[in-house]
Amino acid sequence: MKKLMVGMALTATLATAVTPGFGSIGGNQEKAYAATVTYKVTASKLNVRSGAGTTYGIIGSVVKGQALSVMSKSGSWYKINYNGRTGYVSSDYVQASGTATPPAESTTYTVTASMLNVRSGAGTNYASIGSVTKGQKLSVVSKSGSWYKINYNGRTGYVSSDYVQASATASPKLVVDSFKTLGNAQQVILVTADNYDTKSAKIQTFEKVDGKWKQVLTANGVLGQKGFALSKKEGDMESPTGKYTIGTAFGRYANSGTKLPYRKITANDVWVDDSKSSLYNTWQQKPANGRWTSAENMDIPAYDYGFVINYNESRTPGKGSAIFFHVGTNYTAGCTATSKEQVVSILKWLNPEKNPVIIQSPVSELDKY
User: Fold this and answer.
1) Helix or strand or coil: residue 345?
2) What phi and psi values does residue 354 have, to the nearest 5 degrees?
3) I need a surface site. Which of 26, 141, 207, 213 has the fewest CB within 10 A?
4) Dihedrals phi, psi of 204, to nearest 5 degrees
């Protein structure tokens, strides 16, 4: 069963020509009528996602009867304007009625006539409000019959599709497309900073779908108080750079839906940071009973949800311990953090069957990967 989110309806009024003719070039008069197109959800609930697929994070919801703006269609997904940002809803649960259809996503529209009239409606009997020239790119909103509805100098205009060439454009290259160290990883969390000394980070997630990388999420995050580490040491307040696998998910509450192995934190849980202990860089439970002299308490708000970054798996003394991806918006002692909402979203997205990795690096050193 696919997850469904709240029903919605979209209406848009477009003028559609009954017979195409030569429209915008000549002055032929022809009858036109107004076509009302409705995009209405047939399910009780419909998710609004950050990308065109169920693997992308949910960015919110719409309520039944709410009017939304469909920008384009990409496969079986509608691209919509959702509260000022881009969202996607599955067309499987949207019933479209009327004659106008949204344009395909990732398509360019180029004028082929030496001059093409832009009209106030979809027909040659509508007044010309301007013109476009050969080779000019158009911002197409939708197609109605043989007419394109376009954005023209801040106004709505219509041009005959007979004199516009629509062609698919290549998807922009993603940073992960150039990585050569990913092996069989099909999910990547990329944490970047402008330089080594900043605590501010950009967090991006990518997933390989049908052999192609797609970006899933972008969020702001924070690093250690002193930024990235050239060579990580215990207590240096710096986050390690490098590529790491992802370990156990954890939290102080019930599993929020991650597919990773999940461990609920108790009041006795600690992470040993005593470099002289044989249990250095491992999750243990109090009391210490002489097994360590220092350990980090796990039962804190920063660890409401998170996951272990598999750093220093050899447990080399003094090289650093307790490196997590967790909740936080200020700075960390050496982990990577972002908002609780984003942590939970990433946890739900992560799939151990896709061999996820996390890469942490200043932007200038991404060519290492």
Assistant:
1) helix
2) -100, 15
3) 26
4) -130, 145
Whether the CB-CB separation of 262 and 248 falls below 8 Å is answered with yes
Compute the C-alpha angle 92/84/209, nearest 5°: 45
By the 10 Å C-beta count (0-12 exposed, 13-18 middle, 19+ buried), 163 is classed as: buried
CB 216 within 8 Å of CB 206: yes
pLDDT in tens, 313-354: 999 999 999 999 999 999 999 999 999 999 999 999 999 999
* Residue whose C-alpha is closest to residue 101's, from 38, 154, 53: 38
Are 229 and 239 contacting, i.e. CB atoms less than 8 angstroms apart? yes
Q: What is the residue-wise DSSP string for 124-145?
A: TTSPEEEEEETT-B-EEEEEET
CB contact at 8 A, 189 and 359: yes
The helix/strand/coil state of 70 is: strand
Residue 256 has phi, psi (to 5 degrees) of: -85, 0
**Could you tell me the two tokens for 330?**
């200020």
Residue 273's identity, in one-letter code, is D
Cα-based distances in Å from 316 to 187, 310, 312, 320, 361: 28, 13, 7, 8, 22
Strand 336-338 to strand 324-327: parallel, antiparallel, or no bridges (unpaired)? Answer: parallel
- Nearest Cα residue to 250 out of 239, 241, 261: 261
C-alpha to C-alpha distance for 201 and 190, rounded to whole angstroms: 10
Distances (CA, A) of 299 to 38, 225, 313, 323: 51, 21, 23, 15
List residues bridging with 108 in a β-sheet. 167
Q: Parallel, antiparallel, or unpaired for β 228-229 and 239-240?
A: parallel
Is the confidence at residue 171, as pLDDT, over 90?
no
Question: Angle at the Cα of 253 (from 249 to 259), degrees rounded to 5?
Answer: 35
Q: Distance between CA 38 and CA 41 in Å, rounded?
A: 10
Please provide residue 214's backbone torsions phi and psi, each rounded to the nearest 5 degrees. -130, 140
